[in-house]
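Example 3.
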Amino acid sequence: MRDVRATVPTLAVENLHVVVAGREVLKGVWLEVRRGELHVLMGPNASGKTTFVMALLGHPAYRIVKGRLLFEGRDISGLSTTERVRLGIGVAFQNPPVIRGVKLRDIIRACMGLWSRADPPEELMIDVLRRAGLEPRRYLTRDLNLGFSGGEKKRAELAQVMAMRPKLMIFDEPDSGVDLDSLKLIGENIRALSEELGSATLVITHYRHIIPYLKPDEVHVLYGGRIIASGPPNEILDALEALGYRGFALKMGLTGGGRA
Amino acid sequence: MKGFPDWYRRRREKALELYEAGKPARYGPDLDLSSYEVCDRGPGLLKDLRQLSEEELRALRNVGLRDDELSRSGTYLQYDGSVAYLRLMEEVAPEGLVIHDLMTAVRKYPWLRRYWFRACPLSLDKYTAFVGAYETAGAFVWCREGVRVEYPVQACLFLGSKRAVQVPHNIIVLEPGSSLHVITGCVTSRACSRAAHVACTEIYVGEGAELTWTMIHSWRPDTHVRPRMGAIVEEGGKLMVNYVLLSPVRSIQLYPTVILLGRGARVGFRNLVLALGKSVVDVGSAVVFNAEGTRGEIMSRALVKDQADIRLRGKLWGRKPGVKGHLECRALVLSDGAKAHAYPNLRSDVEDAELTHEAAIGRIAEEELFYLMSRGLDRDEAVALVSKGFLDTDIPGLPPELSIEIKKIVEATIEHAL
């Protein structure tokens, strides 16, 4: 059993409404993730998964028009991206950009700078890359994501979140476009990291394949900008399997939403 | 002109005529050189570099001078119009490496006549002719056949006068099979104001010889700078030219031209330019492929900020078959008031020349900054990191230690400037 005694959730999202390019994408999201818990947020394309991540990080194009974002009980919606990250939010992106000339080493160093005052020792950088399944000597000097395969990008994102040691870890589709080996490596690493750091962890995904490696405490279904169901993985996954996202949503609509 | 050979006197007269004809440079704002006084003297010879003030030394270190002279084969320092320090490090410099003030060399070596304004013709423009007519000093570095010099030679020019023009003329001769690294730093003192630097550098790389030539410039915002440079590379020779501009400047225009004269000769240019303040910067590089199987590459990167205006030029001219060249100009514009232009120019007179170019001018993508901020950097740190990466300060071909020194100088300047 994980520690669920902590009273203040690491992340509490209260009735979050987010507008992107004049369109309301999130229409009242409620969510809580506590220290030591691993949650999965599932949803079809265009359900608002990435919008949720961007709004959480304070991307200027994602405007919170209603609701609250609480990190360890503190409303962070007025803070800059950098300030939020420095509080302890680490995100692995679905589609990280290529940045020419900026080496993976530079980024890992920045990530480690979040908790280490001195320049991080080389061994630590090597260690996170190796754990993420990237051969350190080859990758530390590579330009960020330049010529990386889908799996290499995801591994590089994982390595960065490891290097950040955040209190809240968010992985946005860590499983999209990767082969089975990467899927297992990434899934198991997220689980292990979550236990090791005792962080609150949220994994966003479209598909169920990564879920057995993650062993989540709870699964949420995001549909049409709202969380339409939350519950233990098996119940939710079985229902999704049987009905698909649309069928599931219709059923929830019929029953008025809430817990599955 | 006492003690100078006749040919030299005649060339000076010829140069004066050409200067008076007043042919402007093809690019860059035209300067009225007659409004400056020629710097024809300096503080005289120093026994030790440490006789310079701490402030002067700091400025010189920032353009690559090592005042401890460690890991250098020799030092040439020109202060205003005359040589201030000249030393060959006997312990590390091999026999066959010769360093002089050019004015001494002219009197000593009659064969210099064959090199005089050959790589950089006097008729090029009035600035070149001005150097030919008014030169007062300059570095002469000569590497005899087969002599491989491990540690770089440093040649620094210091400009401290007001309303004056510094007129150095440098000649570098590498005989066949020799190799050498030269780092030249040009810098102005704090006292210097409204000055100009008009220089000519001629480089001769013999058969199978290898030279890396690295220039680091740091001027005052009111300095006008017109360095001329030409190089000739013989069969199998290799030349690497690195240019770094670190400071704001009133105006600078240079367009070094390298002629690949022998089969298989190669040249690489690497220009790293910080165009800051109100600088007007016009930096080009040209390669003439005059023999079969020659190779050339030009890479220019510029960061443009404030109200700076930069023109990046590059020219590859294929004149013999089987040649290959690539030109890359990239500018990153960091402020709304800044301007950048890229002018790539390819020309081939033969069927079988492979010449390519890429040019790009852009801004830092918001997406990249957001991403870096999500790794805990603030906006300024993110801009500095992308800028450093963009300038790509890993300069190939240099001894590792020198490469690290230059990288540190450039990165410190970027951090300071941004």
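Chain B touches chain A through 21 residues (CB under 8 Å). The mean pLDDT of chain B is 95.
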